[in-house]
Specification:
Blueprint lengths: L5 H14 L4 E5 L2 H12 L3 E7 L6 E6 L12 E3 L8 E2 L13 E6 L2 E4 H7 L3 E7 L1
Length: 132
């Protein structure tokens, strides 16, 4: 299956899986989504993820995280920059999601980073998504 936007597909699968209280979801592999999930894991939005080899493209199995009350840790996901409309920000215009309670994922010339890391590096880039 050829996906036009693998990032929005991955975010949709995560959103639907957490609303359905799934323990794990499988997402088609891409290097960009792997980097985004590295950030999600580091920032404790997901438990873990691993690569599944299916002798074709491969898949990422993402283990979702829930609170003690069985509420999803990820309350919301939003795809900002789309293939049809790219959204770029300069280093002094990096957005804060929910006043700093959420996180923006930004693709910079130094790799895919969070909004906080981009501010520390004094670099802008393409705003991929918001998570809160």
């Amino acid at each position: 299956m050829n996906l036009t936007d693998p990032i929005s597909n991955a975010l949709t699968v995560i959103r639907n899986g957490s609303m359905a209280r799934k323990i794990k979801v499988d997402i088609p592999f891409s290097k960009m989504t792997e980097e985004i999930f590295n950030i999600f894991k580091r920032e404790k939005y997901i438990k873990d993820f691993k690569f599944l080899d299916d002798k074709k493209q491969g898949a990422l199995r993402v283990y979702l995280k829930y609170t003690r009350d069985e509420e999803p840790v990820i309350k919301g996901l939003a795809r900002i920059s789309k293939p049809s409309l790219r959204i770029y920000v300069k280093k002094d215009k990096i957005p804060k999601v929910l006043g700093g309670l959420g996180m923006a994922v930004i693709s910079t010339s130094r790799g895919i980073v969070t909004d906080t890391q981009a501010r520390e590096m004094h670099t802008g880039g393409e705003v991929l998504c918001y998570v809160w």
